[in-house]
Amino acid sequence: MTDICFTEDAPHILLVDDDARLAALAGRYLSENGFRVTRAASAAEARVKLRAMEFDLMVLDVMMPGESGLDLTGSLRAERAPAMPILLLTARDTPEDVLAGFEAGADDYLGKPFDPRVLVARLRAMLRRAQPPTATTGPLKLGEASFDSGRGELIGPNSRIRLTGAELALLTTLAAHPHEVFSREALAATLGLDDVNERAIDVQVTRLRRKIEPDPREPRFLQTVRGKGYVLKPGP
């Protein structure tokens, strides 16, 4: 069943988990720490909530009956839904499982069981990354696209290109220092990932290339520097 807890003027979180006890405990803790929480017990119920309300972030269990959290994440990204940050909760936290989550479009993950204080810290960090930068700079040309870091917008030849929170954080960091090589460690720190998940940076880079490169297999703008990391080279 759905349980909605309200905290005035708070970030609105959609918490999706079929474990009623865990969801109740997590929802209560989040509410006590300044979040407005709406619960859903399945991906189908989450879709209903997403159509009816606006959310700042989704916390989504991976292993659920019916449509999994991983499938729901991939579906929402494929539908070009608003790029709401998504944190996956999973008892399967091998590197392969984590990378599959990032490939589907998740912004972060947290293994079960988890410390609720860590969940709160992760959510606050994700919300900070999702906010457009306060500093305003001129748009950066990336072929037919342009990135305005001040507005946090990637504009294609015909329309705005949606970015996930993690993609926006990654592109903003690289765009702030074009032609400078960033190690995976540095980029992982920017996205709030721990050292174990530096390989997740490769997944985010691959996703970002699909949105800015004419041919992602032969990147012109977001290039790999062998043995060092990645560099953004803007241009026409």
UniProtKB/TrEMBL annotation:
GO terms for cellular component: cytosol; protein-DNA complex. Signal peptide: none annotated. The keyword Transcription applies. Residues 12-127 form the Response regulatory domain. The modification 4-aspartylphosphate is found at D61. GO terms for biological process: regulation of DNA-templated transcription. PROSITE patterns: OMPR_PHOB (PS51755), RESPONSE_REGULATORY (PS50110). Keywords: DNA-binding, Phosphoprotein, Transcription, Transcription regulation, Two-component regulatory system. Residues 137-234 form the OmpR/PhoB-type domain. InterPro entries: CheY-like_superfamily (IPR011006), OmpR/PhoB-type_DNA-bd (IPR001867), Sig_transdc_resp-reg_C-effctor (IPR016032), Sig_transdc_resp-reg_receiver (IPR001789), WalR-like (IPR039420), WH-like_DNA-bd_sf (IPR036388). CDD domains: REC_OmpR, trans_reg_C. PANTHER family: DNA-BINDING DUAL TRANSCRIPTIONAL REGULATOR OMPR, REGULATOR OF RPOS. This is Two component transcriptional regulator. It comes from Acidocella aminolytica 101 = DSM 11237. The lineage of its organism: Bacteria, Pseudomonadati, Pseudomonadota, Alphaproteobacteria, Acetobacterales.
